[in-house]
Write a structure and sequence with these properties.
Layout lengths: L8 E2 L5 H11 L7 H4 L14 H5 L2 H10 L23 H8 L3 H12 L5 H8 L18 E5 L8 H18 L2 E5 L7 H4 L4 E5 L8 H12 L3 E5 L11 H8 L3 E3 L5 E2 L1 E4 L17 E2 L3 E2 L8 E8 L6 E2 L2 E2 L6 E8 L2 E6 L11 H14 L22
Helix pairs in contact: 1-7, 4-6
């Protein structure tokens, strides 16, 4: 029997519609309701950029959308009103890319949607997919570097990838002598919990997940020196509601992936980089290759792996997704904090690929502050590659 990594999984129940409406009803008129309605779009007027799920759960907005026939061609899986659901990571504007929706019809609909008042019950319904802060702190084994691994999804839940990544992460923790705590509760993102971890890892997380208070806690934790790591789907949503997360913490905005999984050649950026040590230079896995609006390469980012776009076809339904400079795994400084992201990891079998496991393991170590380099107060790297200053 193999030695098991000490790990704990937090099991919680979402606040849900009952909690949201119950708390709202119990709140005196005029009193603060931030504990229930503390979600990003609680009171934001509807628009073409609103997640479709919010339009579907409001009968008034749904009737307006249905009358246009805009979503008649959408598959049922894209219109689920309970998470996880594609409807939480799609807006009417984003959907125009794949459903060829009429722009003039959307513009007219947007005006009518914007005129709808956001009532208290609408705010409660929109916030019901978020979780209140956990009342009890996480139990974190002492004596070893600890990592919080989060795997909840409100958007696209890729169960096989999450499970394969979890298995690989457990083995990584055993080898490193690290304590990994697994959680599916966004309510665990409190200052009290976060300060007990070297870093946080998001395992194929999809969809907006954190309340405004939880966002603030994570951002302060990172910018003041905490670590963050993310795998594949954590940077692959077509719609993001938190600009800081995607533009600063991840560092690149997903724009799509090819229609089919393809074999592609992964390029090691610098053979002297200790974070890519052991990665085969002829590595060409079959994968769902992400493309981004622009390369994250820059003064606060060190690219570890990039993609040879001549080795596969970067198109989706005739749309050209080529980037030219195509990073696929990188580290970056966010304030004094450290962020690692790898876009590799859709296919479960790739979590058994030694090359992929190695880049994840070495990226996690960096995010936990266990590598020689780090981040200065000004957001720059505190150590350089061998042979440089």
């Amino acid at each position: 029997m193999s030695r098991r990594l000490p790990s704990l999984r937090r099991t919680t129940v979402s606040a849900g519609f009952a909690l949201a409406f119950g708390a709202l009803a119990a709140t005196p008129a005029g009193a603060a309701t931030s504990a229930v309605l503390d979600c990003p779009l609680a009171r934001t007027p509807y628009s073409a950029d609103t997640p479709i799920i919010d339009l579907l759960i409001d009968k008034r907005a749904k009737a307006m959308v249905d009358a246009t026939g805009l979503l008649a061609k959408a598959p049922p899986v894209a219109l689920r009103t309970t998470p996880p659901s594609f409807a939480s990571i799609l807006s009417l504007r984003v959907a125009t890319r794949t459903l060829a929706l009429d722009a003039a019809v959307i513009a007219d609909l947007e005006k009518r949607l914007a005129a709808l008042p956001i009532r208290p019950e609408d705010s409660a319904a929109r916030c019901a997919r978020y979780e209140a802060d956990a009342r009890q702190p996480l139990a974190v084994p002492a004596g070893r570097p600890a990592l919080l691994i989060f795997d909840r999804s409100n958007g696209f839940r890729d169960g096989p990838s999450v499970e394969a990544a979890t298995e690989a992460l457990r083995a990584i923790g055993e080898r490193g002598g690290w304590s990994f705590v697994f959680s599916s509760s966004a309510g665990d993102f409190t200052p009290r919990n976060l300060k007990r971890f070297r870093a946080v890892l998001w395992n194929n997380v999809s969809g907006d997940m954190l309340t405004m208070g939880q966002r603030s806690a994570l951002r302060r934790y990172i910018e003041r020196g905490g670590g963050f790591a993310a795998i594949h789907g954590s940077g692959g949503d077509p719609l993001y509601l938190w600009d800081w997360y995607v533009d600063e913490l991840i560092g690149a905005r997903f724009i799509g992936h090819p229609d089919a999984h393809q074999k592609g050649r992964v390029l090691v950026e610098n053979p002297d980089d200790p974070l890519t040590a052991g990665i085969a230079h002829d590595w060409a896995p079959v994968e769902e290759w992400y493309s981004f609006a622009k390369s994250p390469r820059g003064s606060r980012t060190r690219v570890l792996l990039s993609l040879d776009e001549t080795s596969y076809k970067p198109t989706a339904s005739g749309r050209d997704l080529s980037m030219g400079d195509h990073p696929i795994a990188w580290i970056r400084c966010v304030g004094r904090g450290r962020s690692f992201y790898s876009a590799i990891g859709h296919r479960p079998e790739n979590y058994r690929d030694p090359n992929n496991v190695r880049i994840i393991e070495q990226g996690i170590a960096w995010s936990m502050g266990l590598s020689p380099s780090g981040c200065r107060r000004d957001g720059s790297m505190s150590a350089s590659l061998p042979g440089t200053k």
